[in-house]
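Memo to structure team: turn this sequence into structure tokens by end of day. - J.P.
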Amino acid sequence: MDGVAVSADRSLDWSLPVPSVQELAKQRLEIVPERYIRDDIVAIDHPSRFSIVVPLIDMNKLLNNHDSKLQKLHSTCKDWGLFQLINHGVSKELVKNMRKQAQEFSDLPLQEKKRSAQQPGSLEGYGQAFVTSEDQKLEWNDMIFLQTLPAQRRNLSLWPQQLPSFEETLGDYSGNMREVAVCLMKFMEKALEVEDEEFSQNFHEGNYDIRMNCYSPCPEPAERVLGVNPHADISGITLLLECGDMPGLQVLKDGQWVIVEPTDDAIVVNLGQITEVISNGIYKAPQHRAVVNRMKERLSVVTFCYPNPSANIGPAEQLIKLGSSPLYKTVTNEE
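Reply from structure team:
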């Protein structure tokens, strides 16, 4: 979501250096470089941006054992694979601070950002993701990608030391995202009638990565340039925090691209392919993308939530015992 979850394919765990999109945008170009121009973008074809609305899930009502709300979660995960989560338990103060850190990093001079630049052979750090060829089309964004949990995975040399509150804020925010992911997985286990909590426990012990995205204003229309290409996430769950009111995330629903309108205090929840496998295809990892706009910068903070690296990933045994044939083979998390 708003950035591709890191693949187990080691060839995708690095990226070639490319120009900063923010710096290009500052030049007030009338036409962007050819490497950003695409001719395969499918535009939204329904007449109103509000004609299809992404579902809203209230965590409080799930916690209060509203059966109808659990059923709504179940049907949303089947039909959409993406929803907006409200009353998620993350404090408004922490959300405000996280947005502030994303903005402050975005506002740093380029030379300061380069102190966090990706190193050869690694995707972690500041740059752009998955650029593996000098000829491939580029996405109109800049990002910083950081491993955050467990804490021993952190490469603090890539965390911007110029921002004194960054480390504490990102650490607290990551812990809160883990709590949200574990809680959601417990409700999905319940909705799927999977009685043991093996999967939610694996997410408690899992890996968490954060990507902060900056989509600068683009002089080309959204029909020619993309912020992030269409993809489905590899993660278990992806949690996206918008840092403003500018829409950009879109999800593919019934063959149409649907705008995910920013909602105050909501976190966008996107199911990844690991959850699709665990549910034996009952829940879907949807295709989604990020589009550009001419007028305003858009920032987002994306958390990729993975189960314990030692866990096996396959359809839940209880779903198979109920008579369903396994649609996926069981593999290790690394595979």
